[in-house]
Amino acid sequence: MFNFHSPFLFFFRCGHCKKLAPEYEKAASILSSHDPSVVLAKIDCTEEANKEVASEHDIKGFPTLKIFRNGGKNVQEYKGPREADGIVEYLKKQSGPASAEIKTVEDASGIIDDKKIVIVGVFPKFSGEEFENFMAVADKLRADYEFAHTTDAKLVPRGESSVTGPLVRLLKPFDELFVDSKEFNVDALEKFIEESSVPVVTEFNKDPNNHPFVIKFFNSPNAKAMLFLNFTSEVADAFRAKYRDVAEKYKTEGLSFLLGDVEASQGAFQYFGLREDQVPLIVVQTNDGQKFLKANLEPEHIATWVKDYKEGNVSPYKKSEPIPEQNDEPVKVVVADTLQDFVFKSDKNILLEFYAPWCGHCKQLAPILDEIATSYESDSEIVIAKLDATANDLPSDTFDIKGYPTLYFKSASGKISQYEEDRTKEAIIAFIEKNRDKAEKQAEKQEESAGSKDEL
């Protein structure tokens, strides 16, 4: 479908990615004159014609950025900065060789510093299976790491400098600072790099040098433990020590660990529905979206609570807006804490909108739903409702929310279906009338069910 011969960034977006758009366009203008040129493109995945492309490349959130190489044969996630200068710098590196040769001390100092991960291959010569495998891995992982190669280990800091290779040295700004490997099988080398480049505890604060490791933390397939506290508090050091001990114990058991400063973690607090008066607190999020929380904990609580979580003795935490004290508008308000009773256990036909407060399309739909709800006010079997999907946790096995607004209809008998037709008053009402269960029909079903039981 696409035939780009130079490296390029492909931008999957919805209509709400306004913050990134001007930075992306500025970067595109700068990179268009780069030699070799780097092509930046974008595609709106909310358009029907583009949904096949979004599905093909597993686009689940917006904005998503990907790097395409070799005419689309190699596709990688873009994990760099999201402001123009950062995008430009990141993609310039991506358009050059996958691994840079270190010939001098100046070369080494230009590539290696104490704030980033660098993987250096040391070889007696730049040929042979080991070197070819190293370069293959460098090409595959270049979007995530910086690679270099040399024939002189004396130019590589940290560790033994007399080796002649072949050897791979991973330099990092945390934990033991470097680790060596002599394994050159492609899969084994990739695994070594991925496992060695994860801090025992990822630190999240306002230091931009930590952000690549934070991104890596959230991209990990593991469940994620996040401890939030005030880094300037008197107890911060005690928490760090206890938390690291726990992280060391469980790091090979499918659980990754992050330590977040409250001041830098406001986005996470909003996402999880947390409050600062709960700090210090720990949250664990599993891959299926479940969350577990312990608020106002002490350093000595950490090990016990994580052990209880691992043994299945901690109940899930659910983010929910407060239950409204009054709910007398035509379109009823549903929150996570009322979803079960209001929707799943209800014997009414319910059209439920999942919306975001900032969504322009949702704002356009709002008066239409008000009109529909008003037209059904005399029909006690029909309810029109809405739920802020950004402020409430949802059962992902029932509702697949990939954009806003998303509409679902639950019939009185419990059948749930997604509404994907025109967002007009007439089309929505026609859908409701076609899919609703009427009271007399429900009564007939109940009588048939009771008769079947009597026969038994």
From TrEMBL:
GO CC field: endoplasmic reticulum lumen
EC number of this enzyme: 5.3.4.1
Catalytic activity: Catalyzes the rearrangement of -S-S- bonds in proteins
Molecular function in Gene Ontology: protein disulfide isomerase activity
Cell compartment(s), UniProt: Endoplasmic reticulum lumen
A Pfam family the protein falls into: Thioredoxin
InterPro entries: PDI_thioredoxin-like_dom, Prot_disulphide_isomerase, Thioredoxin-like_sf, Thioredoxin_CS, Thioredoxin_domain
Function field: Participates in the folding of proteins containing disulfide bonds, may be involved in glycosylation, prolyl hydroxylation and triglyceride transfer.
Matches recorded under NCBIfam families: ER_PDI_fam, pdi_dom
UniProt protein name: Protein disulfide-isomerase
